[in-house]
Specification:
Layout lengths: L1 H13 L6 H8 L6 H10 L1 H4 L3 H12 L1 H26 L1 H8 L3 H10 L1 H10 L5 H10 L4 H28 L2 H34 L23
Length: 230
């Protein structure tokens, strides 16, 4: 993500004609009114391409402006989260158990208890691989609507800032670009701070998992009953 956005900045500095909002819109003219639909559709299947969503949001800000790109990106995030959730719920439970091993039960309890916060913090923190965290939550038994709502709400700050960053970059507005970049750094710090809470809870829950109690011995054939006094 850092390399890609840094590449966009360098391209703007070295070849401003390539990263110009008017030029980009002229390239999109053949698509006409279907350009936003094509953009949203690509974002919906973006996880299958392994491309970082932040870069596509920045490109959307270059193409459509801050507000439109934010709306389109949030719609694409909703669709992609729905796609990932049901694929993970169908195919990911057993692989998740094998990967997590003894920590699976703790992670599963935390994901079900805090499914909204799990998804929200995963999207708020740019260091977290959002797609993988959503897959992990779905495979651990998290509920659909709280998880998707957490994804959408957690994505809003970063989506707006990244779209504004791309729009300011394409328009050559240095102040807007700098403010957006500063906001992205702040969201990174906040995501790290709040994300530690969930990580700490998972580790504590794993440490507190009680050992399975031994089942009472069953009476064997021919065994004598214990003699008790009244």
């Amino acid at each position: 993500m850092v390399v890609s956005i840094g590449g966009l900045v360098m391209l703007r500095l070295l070849g401003p004609d390539f990263i110009d909002q008017r030029t980009i819109r002229e390239v999109l003219l053949p698509l006409g009114d279907y350009a936003p639909l094509a953009y949203v559709a690509f974002l919906a299947v973006r996880p299958l391409t392994l491309l970082p969503g932040q870069v596509l949001t920045a490109v959307g800000g270059m193409m459509f402006g801050t507000l439109a790109a934010t709306l389109y990106s949030l719609t694409g995030s909703l669709l992609s989260a729905t796609l990932l959730f049901f694929i993970a719920r169908k195919l990911g439970t057993r692989p998740m158990q094998r990967v997590c091993g003894s920590k699976y039960s703790a992670i599963s309890r935390a994901a079900r208890r805090h499914d909204f916060h799990f998804a929200f913090l995963a999207c708020l923190n740019p260091l977290c691989p959002t797609d993988i965290m959503l897959i992990a939550g779905a495979a651990s038994g998290a509920r659909f609507w709280p998880s998707v709502l957490g994804v959408v709400l957690g994505t809003i700050p970063g989506t707006f800032l990244t779209a504004q960053f791309g729009s300011g970059l394409a328009q050559g507005r240095t102040m807007m670009t700098a403010v957006s970049a500063a906001g992205m750094i702040v969201s990174l710090v906040l995501g790290v701070v709040f994300g530690r809470r969930f990580y700490k809870e998972v580790n504590e829950a794993h440490a507190e998992v009680p050992a399975p109690e031994a089942e009472p011995a069953r009476d064997l054939p021919g065994a004598k009953e214990a003699f008790t006094t009244p």
